[in-house]
């Protein structure tokens, strides 16, 4: 197998930049997966149906046969040498923890094919106006750090999906945004809107609050639209997130290590192409999603225990490359809010924090990615808060221990601490739930209680009706409205 020199690329001395509690793979394992990925790129190659992409590979040491591109280890090494760390900001220009090494951040999708209506409780097709109230809820949730915008509204023309969804999102949150453009034209529309909100393209380049996703059709199979997006993002210096979507036993081997080799080769090929187009252009993360194809139902399961194993390994591989990790999804396979949802969300949240996955996505999306609802996102937010609180390091300081001894001496054996000044000063530091309960109750009495799903719905409706995201200026809103009208006019002229 070919190997990549690690002299200046993956130095051990920098491993502590990505602190984790748990590792699935050791250095020997990671070296082996990397070497095998290079072997795949040289012998199997990568499907590249875009002329410009193949030309860049050919001009820089690769080999092209038909639409297959073969990439050398040296090309991969050069790509890593030109990579630069990426910083993201919110719409107000404040530095975001997103992409910072070791900072686990969570997001959710602000649109899916179907939505649970918070007032009728019916599941129905997602519509354009749903983007506003759902993003309003997301904006209010402290533990949802960024927003994903895909564009899946049933009442918006296909060619305007991601653009219109982005406008709705920009009007309803200041949080960083991950957007999924449908094509190059959609990307350019999005960048025009972003430039308006940023106050000019140069301002956005200095403090970007948006990154674009370029997602290939499957491992080692670049699609025309995703490669064009990847190249356009590099050309325009727009932060880009690239990942593929293997399913164990479906479009990839029924083995985690083998699928990691396949999918990592895909990620490396896209990294090389992006950096060839513009060395140093912002490439945000390493990693990919991984599901398991359930052979009973043929469902691509997001929450199988094997996927949790895989996400830790994927995070280890990303950190091996000294990159923020992407891949883990805090979602569930079942289409209802119930105990299974809680178990699956909690399992993935713990895994993210243990393995230090910097970018967790799809928090609260359910039904294997087909459904969204404010209630499920609020439940995810509560679980994230609960889990973060449980995993905070405990600080032990000499001064505090000395004060503790004095307090214990004063109270003595069999004493109580409820009335002590120390308790008054410290009890608010504990975590208290918003929608979970710790009720006092008499187990012998028949006491009516509001169930969790009802409490989630009540909070959802309260946030929709009362939370007010920081608005854009009237001038910006007018410009965005005019831009949207121009898109619809173009769409009518070119159906």
Question: Which key terms come to mind for this protein?
Answer:
globular, single chain, three-stranded antiparallel β-sheet, disordered N terminus, 495 residues, 17 strands, alpha/beta, eight-stranded parallel β-sheet, 16 helices, TIM Barrel
Secondary structure layout plus pairing:
Blueprint: H1 27-43, E1 46-47, H2 51-59, E2 63-65, E3 68-70, H3 73-82, E4 105-109, E5 114-116, E6 123-125, H4 130-140, E7 146-149, H5 161-170, E8 177-179, H6 184-198, H7 201-206, E9 210-214, H8 224-236, E10 240-242, E11 247-248, H9 256-277, E12 286-287, E13 291-293, E14 300-301, H10 305-320, E15 325-329, H11 339-355, E16 359-361, E17 371-372, H12 374-390, H13 398-411, H14 421-426, H15 452-466, H16 474-493
Parallel strand pairs: 4-7, 4-16, 5-17, 7-8, 8-9, 9-10, 11-13, 12-15, 15-16
Antiparallel strand pairs: 1-3, 2-3, 5-6, 13-14
Helix pairs in contact: 1-9, 3-9, 5-6, 6-16, 8-9, 10-11, 11-12, 12-15
Describe the structure in your own words.
This protein has 495 residues and is of the alpha/beta class. It has a domain at 105-255 and 277-390: TIM Barrel (Alpha-Beta Barrel), CATH 3.20.20.480. It has 16 helices and 17 strands. The protein has helices at 27-43, 51-59, 73-82, 130-140, 161-170, 184-198, 201-206, 224-236, 256-277, 305-320, 339-355, 374-390, 398-411, 421-426, 452-466, 474-493, and strands spanning 46-47, 63-65, 68-70, 105-109, 114-116, 123-125, 146-149, 177-179, 210-214, 240-242, 247-248, 286-287, 291-293, 300-301, 325-329, 359-361, 371-372. The strands form four sheets. An eight-stranded parallel beta sheet has the order 10-9-8-7-4-16-15-12. Helix 3 packs across helix 9 (256-277). The longest helix has 22 residues, at 256-277. The chain starts with 26 loop residues before the first helix and ends with a helix.
